[in-house]
Structure to design on (424 residues):
């Protein structure tokens, strides 16, 4: 079909009129009651985030950034705007919770603790036609990484046929979590006024969500950002028990290193090391937790990240630790936008009150975890021999900036150009 013919066939295909939801008070915009932090699922109430759904009580839409693809699919005529998911057999592969943290005031503000089990509390309402969808999915898988196979070959890990198979497969429970922000709770976490935060979110997304400023009666926001994936090693039924030893790596996405093995940073080596520690802990009867957050390039995004790489490698004096953070600040205006204040929410959701082995040297991660009331027993640094040569600049800069280490590099060390040149 020619583009012109396609355009004619699609003309005025979407239903009329447009439903504007930006003002409260009409029957179609009356939100379903919600009591964030209530002790029971039915007492809390359902999160309804599908545009045009009856009782919708959240700004934004399910699936984060992918909601824009869904909108395109509707516009292109590939998806019926009224499509409702058939959730048969999609319930969690392992139960998670409920845990006491789910209703402790202020403990969880950036995800829906009941988000994996709407069918449990609201099955009758869903059967009667209410559009209540999960924001969390829990499944099971085997993962296999060359680093884990190498750890077996080197004798550091021993397959047990349960947590770790002889072929290097590790058994995991994996959990995808979409962010669900309780706006008042998020504002309180950052110590800012809620209306100021709502206004900034409205204005600096190009006015994408007018309801942030016109609908104070809507308490929730499903932001169009990436969420978190959890990989659990060991028996998930042991979560929430004080005697269970927990190993944990909080990992912020780095596509270049995590997936493609780019050697400018320590991300994938540190992730693989974290998984090794998680497997060890699970084999001793504990639970290993990898929390993988979609915050590419310190949440500055990959374009900014690659611009910074160029700026680092082209600067006079070469790529060196003393100028590492400055180059990021020149491009982005800040060094980091990961807002680790929200990161401990997933740990509370998993019922964790103590981490026995935290596989991270970052104080930016350690401080909010401890500040949120979780005890950290031991901090596990990355073994020196796992750091790629080109990543030494990053490692030196982070150690000098207060990374958890007993080997802080001196001024002369930080001045040395250690990174590879752009054309090398
Ligand atoms: Zn990286």
């Amino acid at each position: 079909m020619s583009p012109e013919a396609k355009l004619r066939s699609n003309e005025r295909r979407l239903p009329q009129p447009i439903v504007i939801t930006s003002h409260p008070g009409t029957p179609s915009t009356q939100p379903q009651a919600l009591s964030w932090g209530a002790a029971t699922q039915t007492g809390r109430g359902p999160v309804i985030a599908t545009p045009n759904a009856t009782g919708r009580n959240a700004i934004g839409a399910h699936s984060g950034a992918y909601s824009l693809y869904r909108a395109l699919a509707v516009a292109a005529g590939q998806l019926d705007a009224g499509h409702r998911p058939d959730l048969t057999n999609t319930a969690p592969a392992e139960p998670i919770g409920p845990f006491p943290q789910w209703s402790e005031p202020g403990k969880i503000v950036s995800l829906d603790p009941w988000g994996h089990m709407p069918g449990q509390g609201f099955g009758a309402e869903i059967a009667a036609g209410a559009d209540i969808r999960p924001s969390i999915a829990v499944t099971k898988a085997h993962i296999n990484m060359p680093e884990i196979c190498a750890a077996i070959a080197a004798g550091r890990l021993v397959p047990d046929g349960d947590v770790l198979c002889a072929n290097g497969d590790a058994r995991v429970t994996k959990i995808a979590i979409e962010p669900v922000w309780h706006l008042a709770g998020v504002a309180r976490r950052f110590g800012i006024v809620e209306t100021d935060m709502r206004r900034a979110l409205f204005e600096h997304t190009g006015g994408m969500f007018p309801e942030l400023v016109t609908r104070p009666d809507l308490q929730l926001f499903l932001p169009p950002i990436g969420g978190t994936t959890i990989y659990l090693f060991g028996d998930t039924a042991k979560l929430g028990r004080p005697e269970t030893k927990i190993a944990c790596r909080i990992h912020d996405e780095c596509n270049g290193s995590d997936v493609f093995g780019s050697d400018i940073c320590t991300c994938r080596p540190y992730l693989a090391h974290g998984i090794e520690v998680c497997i060890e802990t699970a084999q001793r009867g504990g639970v290993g937790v990898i929390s993988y957050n979609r915050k590419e390039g310190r949440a500055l995004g990959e374009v900014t990240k690659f611009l910074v790489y160029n700026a680092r490698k082209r600067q006079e004096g070469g790529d060196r630790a003393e100028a590492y953070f400055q180059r990021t600040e020149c491009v982005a205006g800040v060094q980091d936008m990961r807002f680790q204040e929200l990161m401990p929410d997933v740990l509370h959701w998993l019922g964790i009150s103590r981490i026995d082995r935290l596989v991270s040297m970052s104080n930016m991660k350690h401080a909010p975890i401890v500040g949120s009331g979780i005890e950290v027993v031991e901090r596990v640094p990355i073994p020196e021999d796992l750091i790629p040569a080109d990543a030494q600049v990053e490692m030196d800069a982070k150690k000098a900036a207060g990374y958890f280490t007993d080997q802080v590099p001196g001024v002369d060390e930080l001045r040395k150009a250690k990174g590879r040149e752009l054309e090398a």
